[in-house]
Specification:
By secondary structure, the chain is an alpha+beta fold. It has helices at about 25-40, 120-135, 145-160; strands at about 45, 55-60, 65-75, 80-85, 95-100, 105-110, 115-120.
Length: about 160
C-alpha cells in the first residue's frame, strides 16, 4: 500500500506532468493506487496524492465500475453549477461545500492505453473535477472562501497533531 501525501506537502501544489507511456511501472502504480484508495475508503485518488507528479487519477464510486484516467482533459463544462460537500484523502476529516459544474466532458486514456471520452453528470462529474484539480496543484479548500479555508486548515492541523 502507498502512503498518502497530506496537506502541507509541497507536491500537492505542483502541476503534474503528462504520462509518456503506459508501461509496467504505471500499471503497477494504478493497482497500488486502487488498493490504497479502497483501504482508505476513498472514491478518487490522483497520482500526486501518493507522491507521483504525473497526470493520472482513478475513481471508484459506489455502484460504478473502477475507472482510470491517464492524461485527462476536461474539454467541456456546463454553465449549470451546484454546491456539494467534498472531502479529500489528503486532508482527512475536513469537509466543505464546493461549487462545481454539474456536467463535464472529459477525454483521457484508459488503463489499456485506449482513448476514452465521457460525458458525465452530477457526482462523477464532481469527482473528476476534484481529481483533475489535484493534477493542477489545486485542493478543494482552494475553491472556498479564504476565511473558511483558514478555519479548516487550523481544524486539520489540530486533528493531525493530535
Amino acid at each position: 500500500m502507498l502512503n498518502i501525501v497530506t496537506l502541507g506537502d509541497e507536491r500537492l501544489k505542483k502541476h503534474s506532468i503528462l504520462v509518456p507511456d503506459l508501461d509496467g511501472e504505471i500499471k503497477s502504480l494504478i493497482e497500488q493506487m486502487f488498493e490504497t484508495m479502497h483501504a482508505n475508503k476513498g472514491i478518487g485518488l490522483a497520482a500526486v496524492q501518493v507522491g507521483k507528479l504525473i497526470r493520472l487519477f482513478i475513481t471508484h464510486l459506489p455502484k460504478d465500475a473502477p475507472r482510470v484516467f491517464i492524461n485527462p482533459e476536461v474539454i467541456e463544462t456546463s454553465v449549470d453549477q451546484g454546491s456539494f460537500e467534498e472531502g479529500c484523502l489528503s486532508i482527512p476529516e475536513v469537509n466543505a461545500d464546493v461549487i462545481r459544474s454539474k456536467h463535464v466532458k472529459v477525454q483521457a486514456w484508459n488503463d489499456k492505453g485506449r482513448p476514452l471520452s465521457m460525458d458525465v453528470d452530477d457526482f462523477l462529474a464532481r469527482v473528476i473535477q476534484h481529481e483533475i484539480d489535484h493534477l493542477n496543484g489545486v485542493l478543494f479548500i482552494d475553491r472556498i472562501d479564504p476565511k473558511k479555508r483558514e478555519r479548516l486548515v487550523r481544524q486539520y492541523e489540530n486533528i493531525s497533531t493530535g
